[in-house]
Amino acid sequence: MRILSPSLAALILMGAIASPLSASASGDPLQQFQPVGKTKLKVFWFPVYEAHLYSPDGEFRSLNHPLALRLRYLRDIDSKELVSSTRDEWQRLGLYHPDASETWLKQLASLWPDVEKGDELMFRYDGDSSHFFFNGEPLGSLSDSGFGPQFAAIWLHPNTRFPSLRRELIGEN
């Protein structure tokens, strides 16, 4: 029996997590999804993004059900800032787990571009894997089923930083 070196095992694991989009994730990323809700994030008087939530039936069920979140940015944001904000929100929500979270954050850092005003970044979770799109074009996928609910929690967890935005996204307002 041959044992893999730690570096080779890490490369294999990373390859299993971030991969090109599968055929099921190509085409219209919102095909078979319906709008649930929308909102706009402003910090003080500065607009940050417009957010739109989608699900297969237009209802928010839970973080573990298929959903899509589309963010249209209203200002420029560096990809490093997006990754850092993701880490900060996971830590704030108590969802940060060093091994898994850091692996996912490294993958996001390799996928996400810098965004400029008017750009759209979309996240789609199908129940098994997560897919990212930038201005309608596929960026890549994370095949770890635990990532999708944890990522969506930033906006949809009951203890999210912006509860009124969550209510608008899930159609309660």
UniProtKB/TrEMBL annotation:
Q: Which organism is it from?
A: Ferrimonas gelatinilytica
Q: Where is the signal peptide?
A: 1-25
GO molecular function list: isomerase activity
Q: Does the keyword Isomerase apply?
A: yes
**Name listed for the protein in its UniProt record:** Chalcone isomerase family protein
Record's keyword terms, sorted: Isomerase, Signal
Q: Which residues form a coiled coil?
A: none
Q: Which residues form the Chalcone isomerase domain?
A: 42-171
